[in-house]
Amino acid sequence: MTYSEIREKFVDFFKAKGHRLVPSASLIPMHDASVLLTVAGMQQFKPYFTGEPSPYGDRAISIQKCFRTSDIDEVGDDSHLTFFEMFGNFAFNGSVSKDEAIQWAWEFLTSPNHMGIQASRLSATYYDGSRVGTRADMTAQEILATLIGLTDISAQGEDNFWGPTGGEGPCGPTVEFYIDGVEVWNIVFNEYYCSVEKELTPLSSGLGIDTGMGLERLLTAVTEEAGNMYETDAFLPIIEAIHKHVPEVGAEINRSMKIIADHLRGSVFLLSDHVRPSNKEQGYILRRLLRRAILHLDKLRVLPAFDELLEVIITKYGDFYPELLTEKDMILQLANLEKDKFLKTMVEGKKELDKLLASHGNKSSGEDAFNLFATYGLPLDFIKEETSVNEDEFNKKFQQHQDISRAGVKSKFGGHGLSSGATVSSADRQKITRFHTAAHLLHAALIKFLGNEIKQAGSDLSVERLRFDFTFPRALSPEEKTLVEDWVNKQIESNLPVKHETIKLTDALASGAVAFFKEKYPDEVEMYTILSPDNSEVVSKEICGGPHVTKTGEIGKFKIVKEQSSSAGVRRIKATID
Predict the structure, then answer these.
(1) 555 pLDDT band (50/70/90 cuts)?
(2) Same domain, 87 and 147
(3) Buried b vs exposed e over 19-39: b needs ≥16 C-beta within 10 Å?
(4) 266: which of 1, 83, 209, 382 fits an S-S bond (Cβ 3.0–4.6 Å)?
(5) How far apart are CA 81 and CA 206, in angstroms?
(6) Which of 104, 108, 126, 125 is nearest to 117 (CA)?
(7) Which positions ≥6 away from 394 have C-beta within 8 Å?
(8) Is 397 helix (H, G, I), strand (E, B) or coil?
(9) Contacts made by residues 322-328, CB under 8 angstroms, sequence distance 24+
(10) Where are the alpha helices (DSSP H) in 327-425?
(11) Average pLDDT over residues 235-255
(12) What is the mean pLDDT of residues 290-315?
């Protein structure tokens, strides 16, 4: 059974049960500031388990892009990944019973029309009630006992009680299905709300169903000839593309190929969601993946195949994730920029590492390792292959570095130039406010004339000018700049009302509001909408916490003074208003 066939069977199965397919959320979480990247399919549905109306109805499914960083060091064996895909079926407000959720999972796994897995390969666990304030899930046990052919059923403790994600939220007991002893499907029954103080209270909205099943693990289980995930067609095109350039075999070569396949796959998806290589947060994870992959490509002497491998991944996954195809040029450009930058520093870094080894032997302090990382970009993984490192000390230095970086960012004016710590005159405040609404019109114009792939990549406002960064692979033509400028001025001349609403984030996104992809939003947000004169068309609709004029005519005449490159794949417009 192929990767695509399993996807299709999962979607068709649950659509027949009344579920609506919802596109994967971004790898940058919108609802959960407690994690850097999306780690589970339920994250985008979290508000609907606590009573908020779901724009998708009470039953939904997704195939969610997920990323977990805890296993980076283990990638290279047969079972660990960073990026993976998660099947999930979800139900809110008691619309699906515990019995239905378990029976459907069993039917999908064992029916010859679906996965066709022999019952003898399956085992299941349920919750034993060991957590204070809970009870054993005997209902689940009784349902499992009715499944024909399932004989291995056991009660487990905390491993079978899931959640919450973040500091508080829905949670509850789980049933877990295993294939040949490997956990494949986790079915969570959200019966409780866990407070910040870790107190459990029954969910007032009724039972919520939240499931997660790793696509790669399931594919391995149903692919008879596959001994591990890398031998399924989720990875084989990538592995085979590497093998073309590395005909040799061996344990170390196989390990390097798995690292390359996993890390480049993860990098492609992070880049498509507009993560940029950097030394902090999501950007640091991306940089670490790319540089570790580059080191192993260099080790196998296949660096010239870098673009070829990226294109194999984009082609393989582009049918289901079309953003990979629309962002292909940007992905290749940014990945190559990071590769070239790293290769230049790697030579000097290796020289410094050799000096360190000559003076310290095979043992290095965390501070020395961090200095190599910060100055030359040598990944910790690479340094550890040459010398032992005090990782606690390294992590402490890295955390200090991040704290300093964050403090530097916070010391500047925010995106709207009116942070509470800044002293701004009323005249300057009014000018910046005009610029802020002009930035929204500029953003809308760029999307209108250049396409939906335009994403805001940053902005900075002062009393003199507007600076707006956006993702785009090339310079704008003079004609395009004129189109954008004229359209913005037309909206200003129409003196359109700027409508302000305080609205739930989920409702704002469902209404089509544009959100800044790097921002972590609260559950309730400010939304600004500008409609055409006859109210028949949305001119601009954005989630934004900044100040705005009440009518566009207050902005004044808008003029683009410069359009230039900001960084690879990112353009910058500077504009003034009169």
Answers:
(1) very high
(2) yes
(3) bbebebbbbbbbbbeeebbbb
(4) 83
(5) 35
(6) 108
(7) 366, 367, 369, 370, 373, 380
(8) helix
(9) 323/272, 323/273, 324/268, 324/269, 324/272, 326/453, 327/271, 327/272, 327/453, 327/471
(10) 328-360, 366-376, 380-386, 391-411
(11) 92
(12) 94
Domain with 333 in it: 235-409
Under a CB-based contact definition with an 8 Å cutoff, are residues 440 and 514 in contact? no
How far are the Cα atoms of 28, 122, 331, 440 from residue 151, in angstroms, in the given order? 41, 8, 49, 60
Q: Are residues 379 and 273 in the same domain?
A: yes
Write out pLDDT tens, residues 517-545.
Answer: 555 667 788 899 999 998 888 999 999 87
Same domain, 244 and 181: no
CATH assignment at residue 560: 3.30.980.10
- The conformation of residue 77, written as its DSSP 8-state character, comes to B
Please tell me the distance from the alpha carbon of residue 215 to that of residue 231, in angstroms, as a whole number: 14
Closest listed residue to residue 247, CA positions, set 296, 302, 295: 302
Among candidate residues 359, 374, 409, the one where a domain is terminated: 409
Helix axes 306-318, 328-360, angle to 10 degrees: 130
**Range of weakest confidence among 82-96, 308-322, 356-370:** 356-370
* pTM, entire model: 0.72
**Quick check: is 421 in a domain?**
no
Q: How far apart are CA 411 and CA 406, in angstroms?
A: 9
263 plus 390 within the same structural domain: yes
What DSSP line would sit under 288-353, residue for residue? HHHHHHHHHHHHTT-GGGHHHHHHHHHHHHHTT-THHHHTHHHHHHHHHHHHHHHHHHHHHHHHHH
* pLDDT-wise least confident of 210-219, 494-503, 513-522, 544-553: 513-522
- In a shared domain, residues 37 and 131: yes
- The answer to whether residue 462 sits within a structural domain is yes
Which tokens belong to 356?
A: 């360190």
Per the listing, tokens 């290589």 go with 277
Note whether 35 and 166 are within 8 A (CB). Answer: yes
Burial class of residue 410 in the structure, from the number of CB atoms within 10 Å of its CB (0-12 exposed, 13-18 middle, 19+ buried)? exposed
Q: Residue 290 in contact with residue 342, Cβ under 8 Å?
A: yes
Last residue of a domain, one of 191, 222, 253: 222
Place of tokens 């998806």: 269
Q: Quick one: 405 and 292 in the same domain?
A: yes
Residues 176 and 34 in one domain: yes
Q: Are residues 331 and 300 in the same domain?
A: yes
What total number of domains does the chain contain?
3
What spatial distance separates the first Cα and last Cα of the chain, rounded to whole Å?
63
Say if strands 161-162 and 169-179 run parallel, antiparallel, or are unpaired: antiparallel
317/323 Cα distance (integer angstroms): 10
Can you read off the two tokens belonging to residue 531? 């409609």
Q: Where are the alpha helices (DSSP H) in 111-186?
A: 138-145
Residue 141: inside a domain, yes or no?
Answer: yes
**Residue 575 near residue 563, CB atoms below 8 Å:** no
CATH (domain of 88): 3.30.930.10
